[in-house]
């Protein structure tokens, strides 16, 4: 798995270098700075959320009940066979009632703020914040030295999320 991750990101890095060779030196500087900063942000985000989840597991906030996870993953029965779905078809009134019950269960804005505070450790992790500051400093450095070009910078930043999507398809198998 680690080798697939390495190959995908290495491939994106090489693609950016080859693209920059054709586009010029300004492209090389901007795409590489943006790509490296973006990779640092991804790595810092991964570490912060990994730490947050490990801490929640240690505290017992997250259980390992597979049956509960299955009901959460498929609470609307999306993976049932067609025969089972036909048996469960709802009338309009039943659907409206079910919808209102589910909205009450979600907890509304109170639940949203609760989730925000629980994930605050991952969002405001020092590593993650420092990585965003590094991105801003790198961008300001390029601007100050009159080396900044927006399109290559965005291409460099966009390479990491696009690579992550490609990686998702590779790891799916």
Gist?
The protein has 173 residues and is an all-alpha fold. 82% of the residues lie in helices and 0% in strands.
The number of distinct β-strands equals 0
Largest sheet: none
User: Helix segment count?
Assistant: 9
Query: Between the first and last Cα atoms, what is the distance in angstroms?
Result: 11 Å
Nearest-integer average pLDDT: 76
Shape: elongated
How large is the share of residues in beta strands? under 5%
> Helix proportion of residues, in percent?
over 70%
What structural class do the secondary elements suggest? mainly alpha
Radius of gyration: 23 Å
Query: Stretches where pLDDT falls below 50 for ≥5 residues?
Result: none
Can you write the helix and strand succession as a string?
HHHHHHHHH
